[in-house]
Each structure stands twice: as structure tokens, then as C-alpha cells.
Amino acid sequence: MARSVNVTVTGAAGQIGYALLFRIASGQLLGQDTKVRLRLLEIPQAVKAAEGTAMELEDCAFPLLEGIDITDDAKTAFDGVNVALLVGARPRTKGMERGDLLEANGGIFKPQGEAINAGAADDVRVLVVGNPANTNALIAQQHAPDVPAERFTAMTRLDENRAYSQLANKLRVPVTEIKRLVIWGNHSATQYPDLSHAVVGDRPALELVDDQEWVENTFIPTVAKRGAAIIEARGASSAASAANAAINHIHDWVNGTAEGQWASMAVPSDGSYGVPEGLISSFPVVCKDGKYEIVQGLTVNEFSRAKIAATVAELEEERDAVRKLGLI
Ligand code: NDP
């Protein structure tokens, strides 16, 4: 018999929520053998819009969808949750300083962390999508002391997917030929998309690219600034690709990464690669039996070391800022 899983999505009435919920309900998040009960969390003003999305979900008559609850109360939303997708966040508005942004998000992710701590299922897995994702995940995690720290993760899979496509376009190969591309650090403009371990078929990607100028001045900035380029072109931020990446992240975590493949996930550091312990930073991981492990023993060259140090420094600054604000 199919098992049943509670999936909570915050910011359910938003753009990403709209692109995400139908894919979850159709079985793409956890597989065709898993039934899903959806819990949608929204702020009071957006509950009505979430109800509209729920009506559309009903109208799809998805065989795996067991039910949908909508609430503006975090405790209710996270009670018994197995998979929590924290999408809703406070966007940066004009004139807003970074401290204001972090404080506003602290007001969202602190109570959500507490609610997860109070009511989540023992196997809860949390993915933070709402920005600043790494630091929002840290805030939530710090307020959920009874949940194993490693269950709190943030999304860098969209950056990884973008990097795969850029490299595939450059080398004119299918993305399926490429493996072991890594995103390090923060989901921000300082992230480091790293080609130094990537292989295309059985050849090192960098050998095929053979153009360090392209890597430094085209590849890395194109991946890091892709979000802004999409806003410029589309007039709205990326939503379907962000939802797709969230599906990929949880699917790999639960069902495992393919043989020989890695995934990039922002996870609490265990001190690997000089990243201070506890920071939620992106690493290459391998997932198996419902758990992830940071890939160990990679050689980090001088260029990579400097790039990783820069993005980790930004994460430390964000952590220090939220500490100063009393949010952690
Ligand atoms: P989106 O659904 O487009 O985005 C939601 C969050 O995801 C934003 O913080 C956004 O960051 C982030 N994000 C991460 N990666 C990406 C990416 N690659 N592309 C785009 N966004 C990305 O926002 P909407 O404004 O459409 O919807 C947000 C919803 O959240 C609203 O319905 C609002 O009511 C709700 N909300 C719910 C809360 C709750 O449940 N307690 C709390 C706060 C808001 P960025 O802004 O940097 O693009």
C-alpha cells in the first residue's frame, strides 16, 4: 500500500508555490508510490488566493493527493509535517537595508522553526527556498533544538541546474553527459559554481572547456546573475525553475542521488573544506537511504579556495548580523 506523507508549503499563494504544488500533488516530489497530504501556510491576506490554488489542485483529481489544508497558523501547518518547503519570505523592497531584510525574515523563520520543533514528525526534512535562504534556514534551525540540525537545508539546486545548462550549451553536449558540477557557499551573487571536479562522459570538463577566461568571466557570473537576467527578461522572478529545483532537491534527498552523481545542497557545515561548523553552506553531497553526506577528500585548488572563502565570508557576515539582531 502507498505510504502517506505530510508536505507543508509556505508562501503557497506565491509564484513559486503555484509552480510547485501541482508537481508535488502529481507525485514528482516523492515518487508514484507515495500519497501526499498538503498543508498550505500563508499570511492572512493571501489565504484566499491559496484557497483558489487549492480549488485548482482539487480540479486536477490527482490520484496521489489525499487532502489539502490551508492555514495562517504555523503550529497547525507544521503539525506532523514530514517534508517542509519554506518558500514564503519577505522580499527586499526599495530602500531596504540588509539588516531590515534579515530582521523581517527573522520574524518569519523564527516562529516557523519553533513550530517545526514543536510538532514535526521525527523524520522531518526542511528545505528553505525563501531568500536569503541560507541564513533563513539557520534562523529556523536555531529555533528547533529538538530536530537534528542536519534536517535543515537551503536550496542551491537551481544554481546547480543553471550551471549544468550553461556548460552543456558551451560544449554542445546533453546535460545528461555531465556529472559532479558543484555549487559552494551562499545562494547569492557570491556563490561559487565549480567546474574543477566536473566530468563530461569520462573526461574532465575543464580539459574540454580549455578556457579559464570563459570560466571566470562568463560561466561563473552568468550562473550567479541568472536570477537578475530572468527578472530583466520576464518582468518577474524565476518561479517554475525554482520550483523544479526544489523538487530535485527533496527527490534526491529522499530517493538518493544517481550512481556516480552528486547534488549541491546548502547544509549545516561539519567543518569540511574549512567552512566553519554550523554555517548553512552549499557543498557537494551524495544522498543514500534518505540521508545526505558531504563528499569528502576533494582537492581544492587555489582559485577555488579563494572563491569558497569569499562566499563563506558573506555567510559569516549574515550569521553575525542575525546574531546581533538577537535572531539566533
Ligand atoms: P515567489 O514565490 O516568487 O518567491 C518566494 C521566495 O522564494 C522569495 O523569497 C524568493 O526570493 C525566493 N526564491 C528563491 N530562489 C528563487 C529563484 N530562483 N527565483 C525566484 N525566487 C526565488 O514570491 P511571491 O511574492 O510570488 O510569493 C511569496 C508568497 O509568500 C506570498 O504569497 C506571500 O504572501 C507569502 N508569504 C508567506 C509567509 C508565510 O507563509 N508565513 C511569509 C511571507 C510571505 P527573492 O525575493 O530574492 O526572489
TrEMBL record:
Ranges for domain Lactate/malate dehydrogenase C-terminal:
156-321
Q: Which UniProt keywords apply?
A: NAD, Oxidoreductase, Tricarboxylic acid cycle
GO terms, molecular function: L-malate dehydrogenase (NAD+) activity
PANTHER family attached here?
A: MALATE DEHYDROGENASE (PTHR23382)
The residues that the entry says bind substrate are R92, R98, N131, R162
Designated name of the protein: Malate dehydrogenase
Has keyword Methyltransferase? no
The reactions it catalyses are: (S)-malate + NAD(+) = oxaloacetate + NADH + H(+)
What is its EC class?
oxidoreductase
Q: Which domain of life is it from?
A: Bacteria
Q: Which InterPro entries match?
A: L-lactate/malate_DH, Lactate/malate_DH_C, Lactate/malate_DH_N, Lactate_DH/Glyco_Ohase_4_C, Malate_DH_AS, Malate_DH_type2, NAD(P)-bd_dom_sf
Family as reported in the entry's similarity comment: Belongs to the LDH/MDH superfamily. MDH type 2 family.
Q: What is its EC number?
A: 1.1.1.37
Entries under SUPFAM superfamilies matching the protein: LDH C-terminal domain-like, NAD(P)-binding Rossmann-fold domains
> Is Metal-binding set as a keyword in this record?
no
